[in-house]
Amino acid sequence: MVPGMMCDERIFSPQIEELSKNLEVTVADISSFPTVRELASDLLKKAPKSFSLLGHSMGGIVAMEIYSQEPNRIEKLILMDTNPKAELDEVKLKREPQIKDVREGKLLEVMRDEMKPNYLAESENKSSVLDVCMDMALSLGPDVFINQSRALQKRTDQLNTIQSINIPVLIMCGSEDKLCTVERHEMMHNMISDSDLKIINNAGHMPTLEQPRETTEVLKEWLMK
After folding, report:
1. Is residue 94 a part of any domain in this protein?
2. Closest Cα partner for 12 from 215, 161, 151, 222?
């Protein structure tokens, strides 16, 4: 499992608890390098010889790069709430003031005001999920924010990778994901011959925590078939 930007294993807590009953589950660390290529290479050095791979958000971007580097090691691939395209120029520019603020000690403010409000659907558990997201971000800290921001800025387009995938793929996203839209996931589904598409209703960018039971059941059924 590869978590998204400023997330750790807590983003997958409900899924780890259930899937670990039948599978060996590990969560990758994508905090230490400022490029997606380096993050993917580092993960491959630590991973088993062959494995199934789940990437959420930025973790999905890293997962696509992992597949592009060593496709024969991946048995199954899950891409969740992610984006195969390179970062738009306007988004790259928006990251600069965020990085500046984080360097000046304003990580909490950046996460609170500029990023997290866009993440979630309106629901009864929105506040508690936001609290988990904030706790993860603050525990990872400013250096990780800057590394991951730079990696996202410099990432390459992975559409050619998507088209080359020849293993089973599950594509998932929240029905109300504003960052990585349903339409983007439908595009990926249409580009991959052996793929399933699952939309999690009443969820935004964090379906693992927003709708944990449904997300877990989808993953369990698909991985075990």
Report:
1. yes
2. 215
Pull the structure tokens for residue 180. Answer: 């990585």
Q: What CATH number should be reported for the domain holding residue 16?
A: 3.40.50.1820
- Which three-class secondary structure state does DSSP give residue 195? strand
166-222, pLDDT tens digit by residue? 999 999 999 999 999 999 999 999 999 999 999 999 999 999 999 999 999 999 999
Name the residue type at position 211: Q
pLDDT in tens, 5-51: 999 999 999 999 999 999 999 999 999 999 999 999 999 999 999 99
Domain that holds residue 199: 9-224
| Domain contains 211 | yes
Q: For the beta carbon of residue 54, count every other beta carbon within 10 angstroms.
A: 27
Number of folded domains that form the chain: 1
Q: Identify whether 3 is part of a domain.
A: no
pLDDT tops 90 at residue 87: yes
**pLDDT over 90 for what percent of the chain?**
93
What sign does the CA torsion over 104, 105, 111, 114 have?
A: negative
SS3 content of the chain, % helix, strand, coil (to 5): 55, 10, 35
Model pLDDT for residues 97-126, shown as the tens digit of each residue? 999 999 999 999 999 887 666 789 988 889
Query: pTM for the whole thing?
Result: 0.96
Residue 163, token pair as written in the block: 């088209």
CA–CA dist 89, 92 (Å, integer): 5
Q: What angle do CA 41, 24, 20 make, to 5 degrees?
A: 130
